[in-house]
Amino acid sequence: MKFELTVLGSNSAIPAHGRKLSAQLLNIKDELVLIDCGEGTLLQMFAYHIKYSKINHIFISHLHGDHIFGLVGLLTTYGLNRRKKTLNIYGPDGLDLIINVQLKLTETKLSYELVFHRTDPQQSTIVLDTPKFTVQTIPLLHRVPCNGYLFREKNQQRRINKSLIDHYDVPFTKISAIKEGADYTTPKGEVVTHQQLTLDPLPERSYAYCSDTMYTESILKLIEGIDLLYHEATFLHELLDKAQKTMHSTALQAASIAKQSKVKQLLIGHFSSRYQTPEVLEKEAQTIFLNTEAVQEGKTYPVGVEPILFK
Amino acid sequence: MKFELTVLGSNSAIPAHGRKLSAQLLNIKDELVLIDCGEGTLLQMFAYHIKYSKINHIFISHLHGDHIFGLVGLLTTYGLNRRKKTLNIYGPDGLDLIINVQLKLTETKLSYELVFHRTDPQQSTIVLDTPKFTVQTIPLLHRVPCNGYLFREKNQQRRINKSLIDHYDVPFTKISAIKEGADYTTPKGEVVTHQQLTLDPLPERSYAYCSDTMYTESILKLIEGIDLLYHEATFLHELLDKAQKTMHSTALQAASIAKQSKVKQLLIGHFSSRYQTPEVLEKEAQTIFLNTEAVQEGKTYPVGVEPILFK
To answer: Domains in chain B, ordered, with CATH?
Structure first.
C-alpha cells in the first residue's frame, strides 16, 4: 500500500522562479490528504493530475497567506463539483472564520459538510485516528500560532511468506484468511500456523511536516526515528540573523534537527525567493545530514519502505 | 498614449482547459488598473510580465469567488514588496470585510494604505475621475449585487498637424507650447494659429467591462457607441434556460447587446468549462455582430484608435 508525498509548492511568501506556494499531497494507503494550501494549489493539483476530489482531510499549519489563500477556492470548487462527502479541515483558531466569512459574503452554499477541527499549537495531540493511520500535531515556533503534523501508518498487516506458501502449495483462495490470522491445514492433515506462513510486518511508516518554524529542539522527541521529515529551510545559515528575526530556519538547522532526531530522510523546502535554485540550500544541509533533498514540485517521494505483499 | 486591455483570465467558475479565472489589466495612458482578480491573477501577471506594482486602482465587479479570490494574495504580496503607494479598491459592499478579516487573522500589517470605495450596483455613478480618464459603474443583473465598469478617456489633446509644422518649418522647441495652445510666429512675422497648426483630437476612447450578467437592455444607453465592449458569454444560446437560471448570458445575447448599443467591437469571455475552446461561442456571436472576438489570455487588445501624435 502506498505511502507517498507529492510536493505541490515549495517557495515561501510569494511565488518565484517557477516555484509555487506551500502545499503537499500525501497518499497514505489510498487516502489522500492535503497539507497546507497556498494560492494556486488547485491549479497545481490539475497540473499533476491529482484526484483532488478524493481528499477528505486538509491539514493547515498556520494562518499565513502563503499557506492558506488557496483554500477557499478549493472549497468552493468542491461545491461547484457537487461534492457530497464531508470535508475535514484541521488548523489553528481563526481558520473557520476566514473561510466562513468568505462563503457567507460570496453567498456560497456548499453542497457538502465542512467540519473544522481546531488544533492547539501549544501541545501535541492526536487530531485524527483512522484504521489506516494517525495524525498528531507538532508544536512549532513561528510568528503566529503554528503546528506541524506527524502522519503515522498503523496496524500494518503481517506479510505473506511467499516461499512457505509455495512450499505447502497453499491454494490462492486461502491467502486472504491466512492474512487475517488463520492457520492452514494441508491435504495430509498437517497444520501450518499463521505465524509460520507470515512474516513480521515492516515497521510502521511515518512522515512529519514542519513548516514554518525557527530552530527548536522541542520537536526532536516527537519526530525521533521517523522515515521522512519535511523541515522548512528558508535561508542559508549565513542569514541566521534573518532566520531568527522572521522565525524561520536555515538549511543547516533543518539538517541538525534531522540528525539529532535520527530521521531516515530529510526533505527541505519553503525556500526564500532570493535563491534562484535551492541547490545551495541542499548542499548546506548535506554537510550535516547527507540524506537530504531539496523538494521539487510535482515530484513524488515514497515514505519509508513499501511492504512487499503477496498478491 | 496607450489605451489597451490585456486579458488575464477568461473561464467561469473554475480554471479549465488552460483558461484561468476572471481578471483583466487595462492600461489607460500608462495608468494600470486591474479589473476583477480571480485566484491565480498574480501568477498570470508574472507570466505576462505585467508591472503589477504600478497598479493603483482595482475594480471588482461582484463578490463571487472566481472574481475575487486572488485579491488578498495580491494585496499581501504588495505588502511583502514594501509598497508605499495607496491602493484603491472599488467593489460592492462586503469586499472590505472579506479582505480585512483575512488580513487581521493572518496578522498581516500592510506597508501601504488600502482604501475601499463601495460601489452601488443599483445605479450608475462615477467612482473615479482623474485628469486622464473617468470610471463609471454599470449596473448589471446577476445572482449577487454586481456592476460592470465603463472606462472613458478624457481631455484628449489636439493633435499636431505634421504637414503644416513641416510647411512652416516650426522649430522642435516650439512644439510643446503649440500642443498646449500657443500660436506660432514665423521669422517673417506671420502668425499661424494653434487651431491651424493642430487637428481636432480623436474621439475619446472608451471600454466597458460587463461580467457577470444576464441579458439586460438597461445597459444599452450607458455603453452606446463605445469603442470596445467586453460582455460575458458563458453559454451558447441553445443553453438559454441555463443562462437565465444562473443569470448569465449567451453568446448571441452578448452580440445582441453589442449590436443594439452600436459599440465598435465586442470581446466575449467568462466561458463555461463545457466549451473546450471558445470558437463556437465566437461564431455564434458573429452571426449577429461580426466584429466579435473570443478573448485569449495574454493577448492585448487596443481600445479604439490611438491618436497619432507628432513626436
So the answer is: 3-156+201-302 (3.60.15.10), 159-198 (no CATH)
